[in-house]
Design a protein that fits this description.
Layout: E1 3-8, H1 13-25, E2 28-36, H2 42-52, E3 58-62, H3 64-77, H4 94-108, E4 112-114, H5 123-134, E5 139-141, H6 154-163, E6 179-182, E7 187-190, E8 220-227, E9 230-234, E10 237-238, H7 241-254, E11 259-265, E12 271-277, H8 279-295, H9 298-317, H10 323-335, E13 341-348, E14 351-358, H11 367-370, H12 383-405
Parallel strand pairs: 1-2, 1-4, 2-3, 4-5
Antiparallel strand pairs: 6-7, 7-12, 8-9, 8-13, 9-10, 11-12, 13-14
Helix pairs in contact: 1-6, 3-7, 4-5, 7-8, 9-10
């Protein structure tokens, strides 16, 4: 019986070569799966390329709304940032692709899935940990890790493609300087000159954002309306989750918002330099924290901040479907019930600043208590004396002990 494999297929050089390689070396019937999560034109090319290689079962699906609704928005409930800077744009897309790979395998009777991630990166863990969690019996094929895979350069892949008449659009001798990954949340750049962390990124590399110096000289103010922690309208216009993020990408990119250049710690142990453009995500993070600032109880907010680094690492390392992530998410979902209202933000020269935040139904901000003017007895300042003395008790006892022993 012919082996059937579902390949995560982008239509690019690497996965096109892998499609033929799997057909040849595994004697396999390859099913291609292409997920449209906002990466652009490469999705349109995938069907014709797969057909040219004799693939008869081709799945191309628009998952943009599901991606933002069920993955990006829940992640932002945690205000998640990996190592203080990375907004997890690639990390959060992988579990959705893995889920559909496993589902397509079940739908087509395939016993295996395959992906194009290398043995050096994080994506191999993200794809495979997700797949094994969803189907512990699935077989996963990672060609880059196979002993028989000897195509370790762009030139080798091009030669293989020419020899086997694989339809690709790259020309021999022309090499893209960067490895790029795009979805509706971000676009990433690695490799090329970026492998030297002391070398500044070329301005021509950036795709979605203008440089702050070239951004408009006039600031733009936008309003974000929140319901249960999710943006449901921008400037008063109701939008679906995918439309929200697409719109904020355009607005933020126009003002140079969302560029980062970082060296991160990969799950496999090495450090890696990457550049990212996340304009809409940067705006969402700023707005969400502002909305929570007036609607969340202090200790709930602090608890979320304590959990956030662990939650971010779970996503980065590939544990989206793990029980610990699901447990944290249940807590996060509960915390978002009162996160309702409107945040006004100003975008200017690469920056995002909070202008105002209001919540008619869930604000915990009490102007009558906090005012510097006469509060009409709302707060008895004399109460602070006992509060401070009780909290100082252990400090005073410790200081006396230190004094007596010196």
């Amino acid at each position: 019986m012919t082996k059937k494999i579902v390949l995560a297929y982008s239509g690019g050089l690497d996965t096109s070569v892998m499609c033929r390689w799997l057909q040849d070396t595994q004697d396999a019937d390859v099913v291609t799966f292409t997920a449209d999560i906002g990466q652009g034109k490469e999705v349109e090319q995938a069907r014709a390329k797969a057909e040219a290689m004799g693939v008869t079962e081709i799945f191309i699906e628009d998952l943009t709304e599901e991606f933002v609704r069920d993955y990006v928005f829940p992640m932002f409930h945690a205000n998640a940032i990996y190592e203080g800077e990375y907004l997890l744009g690639t990390s959060i897309a992988r579990p959705l692709i893995a889920k559909r790979l496993v589902e397509v395998a079940a739908e087509t009777g395939a016993g295996a899935i395959a992906h194009g991630a290398t043995g050096k990166g994080n994506d191999q863990a993200r794809f495979e940990l997700s797949a094994y969690t969803l189907n512990p019996d699935i077989e996963v094929i990672a060609p880059w890790r196979e002993p028989s895979w000897d195509l370790h350069s762009r030139e080798a892949c091009m030669a293989y493609a020419e020899e086997r008449q694989i339809p690709v659009e790259f020309k021999r001798g022309v090499e893209s300087p960067y490895s790029m990954d795009a979805n509706l949340l971000h676009i990433s750049f690695e490799g090329g000159g970026l492998e030297d962390p002391g070398r500044p990124a070329d301005e021509s590399m950036w795709r979605w954002t203008v440089s702050p110096e070239e951004a408009p000289d006039e600031a733009q103010v936008i309003d974000l309306d929140y319901e249960a922690g999710n943006v449901v309208a921008v400037d008063g216009e109701s939008m679906t989750p995918g439309t929200v993020l697409r719109h904020l990408n355009e607005v933020g990119g126009r003002h140079g918002v969302g560029r980062t250049d970082i060296v991160e710690n990969r799950y496999v142990g090495m450090k890696s330099r990457g550049c990212y453009e996340t304009p809409g995500g940067t705006i969402l993070l700023k707005g969400h924290r502002a909305m929570e600032s007036i609607t969340l109880d202090r200790e709930v907010a602090h608890l979320k901040d304590e959990l956030m680094p662990r939650y971010a690492s779970l996503i980065y390392n590939g544990y989206w479907f793990a029980p610990e992530r699901l447990a944290i998410q249940a807590l996060l979902t509960e915390t978002q019930k009162p996160v309702n209202g409107r945040v006004r933000l100003k975008l200017y020269k690469g920056g995002v600043s909070v202008v105002a935040r209001t919540s008619e139904t869930d604000s915990l901000y009490d102007e009558g208590v906090v005012t510097f003017e006469d509060d009409a007895g709302a707060y008895d300042q004399a109460d602070a004396t006992g509060f401070i003395r009780l909290n100082a008790l252990r400090l005073r006892l410790g200081a006396r002990r230190s004094r007596s022993s010196s």
